[in-house]
Amino acid sequence: MVACDNALATAAGIEMLAAGGTAADAVVAADAVLGVVQPMSTGLGGDATCIVALDGSIESYQGTGAAGAGLDHGPLVDAGVLDPRDPRLAVVPGVVDAWTHVLGRHGRLGLQRVLQPAIRLAGDGAPVMPVAAAAWARFGQELRHDGARATFLRDGRTPAPFGRFANPALRTSLERVAAGGPDAFYRGHIAESIARTIQAAGGVLSVDDLATHRGETGRPMSLELDEHVLAEVGPPNGGLIVLLAVALVRHIGRGGDEVARVDDSVRAIESAFEVVFGRVGDPRVVAAVADELLAAEHLDELADRVRNRALAARQDRAGGTVVVTAADADGRVVSWASSLFQGFGCGVCPAELGFCLNDRGFGFTAEAGHPNAPAARKRPYHSVMPALLTDANGRPVAAFGFAGADMQPQAQVQLLEHVLAGADPQSALDAPRWHTAGGGRLELEDGWPEATFDALADRGYSVERAAGAVFGRGQLLVVHDEGWYVGAADGRGDGLAAGW
């Protein structure tokens, strides 16, 4: 079973399973295709994280990159506000390392075979689906770098829905990676081109930064939920926001009608944002505080804040992410997410390589002394958060994740409630969502009862009706009691869930 945000990417994953591959082979094949058909969201210039469950064991891979060794944090902190298109915010792309790791531990087919669908589509061209075309048009207007404009625009325009788009330069880059593995990306021609291009644009990444990149294997953070366990990738990824919000809701006790439950969840997620954005940074550089934040004493403190109805204002962030969930006949389940962050990342593209570099450093906090303040060789806060739900014995129950930057933890909290209530996967994904941007501002999607709008306004929210990308796009795979898998792709996107 494979579920992701593009039918061609799902087909690539199914192709791997049909060839005898594993769920790891499937997610890498699908992710590589997504870099071809949704280059504003992901690609070779981005990063990836994942959670893998098999035989009662569960592991995570932190594939995010760090800022360059030459980063001077002073000007960024002095400015007080970061520009997402600032080339200094490009961190080392971690996706090729993540591909290689997950294939080495859990795959059967190898990088050369798994990248063939993406290589083929990059060379021959692929249709651009409607939701992707809309995002391409929105972010394509912001492209200022000559290499990016030459690569992703045709006659100054972005592809129309269902228009064919080919990327010969990306095909060549993918062929180099397929043949040479991570060394072909982090050393030699590709690394030199990345460093030369980003430095010419004002960035700081060097060939040494690329050559020394390594992701991290570990155990995800987890939260016990009666008969289940929720697993998230730990800091600097934002999965802690989900764990903290869910723990807080359970700590204060759910009750009342649907409006009361929404109110509790919104206030819990806002408190979790405030805490994590205020206290969490790269644990390799600053003190790890995740366990402390989930302790009962801290939940007591946060519960008082929720009951007192305090809602802090914050800057809501938008971004582009792709999620792939996959499962195989061996019982292996993978939740995978990759990203450039903002659409087309920092907007700098080595034209000869065919992909944009990320702006993941926009996740830093421009404040001197902050745990998440920018610094050389430091990883920024990272919004990507693949998730996995298991039973008490570690056997996978559901794999899921969302695109949508700060909407991601909000959507996970809402989806989890539907999944635990027994909703079928497609209904759980398609259910109407709320989105909070802080300070009592609340957007509701069509589908909520009209009375809910008024009732939430009576509770002090500034309520608006909204639609579109603000509510994110998710993928969900559930392990059925009968032993098979049930998948769903969000109806807000271009995706497809399919089995083999």
Give a description of the structure.
With 500 residues, the chain is an alpha+beta fold. It has a domain of 190 residues. Helix content is 39%, strand content 19%. The chain contains 19 helices and 18 strands. Strands 6-3-2-10-9-1-18 form a seven-stranded antiparallel β-sheet, with helices on one face. Strands 7-8-11-12-16-17 form a six-stranded antiparallel β-sheet. β2 and β3 form a beta hairpin. α2 runs antiparallel to α4. The longest helix has 22 residues. The radius of gyration is 21 Å and the shape is globular. 58% of the residues are buried.
Sum this structure up briefly:
The protein is α+β, with helices and mostly antiparallel strands and 500 residues long. It contains 19 helices and 18 strands.
The percent range for strand residues is: 15-25%
User: Based on helices, strands and strand pairing, what is the structural class?
Assistant: alpha+beta
Helix fraction by DSSP (H/I, runs of at least 4): 25-40%
Radius of gyration: 21 Å
Distance between the termini: 6 Å
> Which stretches of 5+ consecutive residues score pLDDT under 50?
none
| Biggest beta sheet summary | 7 strands, antiparallel
Strand order of the largest sheet: 6-3-2-10-9-1-18
Give the helix tally.
19
List the helices and strands and how they pair.
Elements: E1 2-4, H1 7-18, H2 23-37, E2 47-54, E3 57-63, H3 73-79, H4 95-106, H5 111-114, H6 116-124, E4 126-127, H7 130-140, H8 146-152, E5 164-165, H9 168-180, H10 182-186, H11 189-200, H12 207-211, E6 216-218, E7 221-225, E8 228-232, H13 239-252, H14 258-279, H15 290-293, H16 296-307, E9 320-327, E10 333-341, E11 387-391, E12 396-403, H17 407-420, H18 425-430, E13 434-438, E14 441-445, H19 450-458, E15 462-466, E16 473-479, E17 485-489, E18 496-498
Parallel strand pairs: 14-15
Antiparallel strand pairs: 1-9, 1-18, 2-3, 2-10, 3-6, 4-5, 7-8, 8-11, 9-10, 11-12, 12-16, 13-14, 16-17
Helix pairs in contact: 1-2, 2-4, 2-6, 6-9, 13-14, 13-16, 13-17, 14-16
